[in-house]
Design brief:
With 130 residues, this protein is mainly α. It has a single domain, classed as Helix Hairpins (Orthogonal Bundle). Helix content is 84%, strand content 0%.
C-alpha cells in the first residue's frame, strides 16, 4: 500500500481549471449568460456612479453572482438532461424548464433588489425624502 497522495496544489489547480472551463463554456455557448454579463457590467457602472454604500455594494454583488451562478448551473442541468435523455421526454422538459425557472426567479429578485438600492441611492443623492 502506497502512502503517496496527489499533489494538493496540482489537484486544486485542476479543480479551478475545471470550474473556469465550465464558466467559459457557459459564456461562449449561452446567449442569456452574455446578456446577464452585460447587465451586470451596466449595474456595476451605475453602482459606482451612484456611490453606493458598502452594504449596498455587497447586496448588488451577491445578486450578480447568484444570477451568474444560476445560469451556469442551468447550463449544466441542460447538458446532463440532454446526455441522459437525448429524445424528447416529459420529465426532461420539466427538469430543463425548472432550471430555467430558477434563473428567472433569481433574475427578477436581483432586479427588485437593484431597483430598491438604486431608488434609495437616488433619493439620498437628491436630498429627497420618501
Amino acid at each position: 500500500m502506497s502512502s503517496e497522495r496527489p499533489d494538493r496544489r496540482r489537484t486544486l489547480r485542476a479543480a479551478f481549471g475545471y470550474a473556469l472551463s465550465g464558466i467559459v463554456h457557459t459564456v461562449r455557448t449561452q446567449r442569456n449568460m452574455r446578456i446577464h454579463l452585460v447587465i451586470a457590467l451596466l449595474v456595476l457602472v451605475a453602482s459606482a456612479l451612484l456611490r453606493l454604500t458598502g452594504p449596498e455594494w455587497a447586496a448588488i454583488i451577491i445578486c450578480i453572482v447568484m444570477v451568474l451562478a444560476a445560469e451556469t448551473l442551468n447550463t449544466g442541468i441542460e447538458a446532463l438532461v440532454d446526455s441522459i435523455s437525448p429524445e424528447i421526454h416529459p420529465l426532461a422538459k420539466i427538469a430543463k424548464d425548472a432550471a430555467a425557472g430558477m434563473v428567472l426567479l433569481l433574475a427578477i429578485g436581483a432586479a427588485l433588489v437593484g431597483l430598491i438600492i438604486f431608488a434609495t441611492a437616488l433619493v439620498r443623492i437628491g436630498g429627497w425624502t420618501l
